[in-house]
Amino acid sequence: MTRIAFIGLGNMGGGMAANQAKAGHAVSAFDLSAQALEKAVAAGCRAADSAAEAVSDAEVVITMLPAGPHVRAVYANEVLAKAPGSALLIDCSTIDVESARAVAADAKALGFRFADAPVSGGTTAAEGGTLAFMVGCDEADFAAVEATLDPMARAVIRAGDHGAGQAAKICNNMVLGISMIGVCEAFALAEKLGLDPDRFFEIATKSSGQCWSLSNYSPWPGQVPAAPSNRDYEGGFATAMMLKDLKLAQEAAAKSGAATPMGAQAEGMYALFDRLGGGGKDFSAILQLFRGNLP
Ligand code: NAD
Fold this sequence. Notes:
Its EC number is 1.1.1.31. This protein is α/β, with parallel strands linked by helices.
């Protein structure tokens, strides 16, 4: 039994914290949202009054927050200020590489072990304990990070040193953002050509058009039971979050000199969908834009 502080109990963090509690760990949980905190308590966590209180006697701190500024603030004001120096700190949020490296440097200067460990897999995998973690940490710390993440994971892979987990994540999500748009365009064309969308799904999932966005997360309702398309695109991975990740990829591409024209196109499409009101919907809802339906 490990004392774990879990900060950020949203779409992803809620299921992840629940799996740590289910594995028998003592999870002290905190979120700014009272509703998120209540859910975590129902799943076996203890509610803390603040992030500072949650981390105060933690052996492990796990954070799952929206973006870089949240992570920088929570670590600077609460985690690094209040957690015991022996605590292992793991940030699972998707953030920019610079923020991850800056937080790691601050943590290391104070003697903490730190890992950036963003995830792939979505809310279903967060609930099912089947996320893929991409880890940036000192090699010597990886065994402890891997053991800690195990109740939430189907795979834990060390990408390299601090920041490497975030680098792997933004590259992976650029693939995801682009592939979802490809799948949506194909559904929109199939519909115009008079194809039955379910028949197209059956064919493409057995053909070379097969990919995760189609087979595991189809944007067309009724094809993949767990997909957000069956819940009016609620929950899941918000368009605004996908847009954030594609912006991170474009910033990284500009800084490093990589050519990523399809990533830039995808960023523009999600920005338009966000501007039209789709930011809170799962990113697969962009299908409706291609079908001419506004959110
Ligand atoms: P979310 O908005 O549902 O959850 C974030 C939670 O953090 C919210 O409940 C919010 O209240 C809380 N929070 C914000 N600031 C806080 C603070 N200072 N103290 C305590 N709590 C605070 O987002 P999510 O979908 O769970 O995503 C979390 C991270 O995981 C993001 O970086 C996202 O890019 C990444 N991610 C999401 C998915 C997905 O499918 N949703 C998949 C992979 C990665």
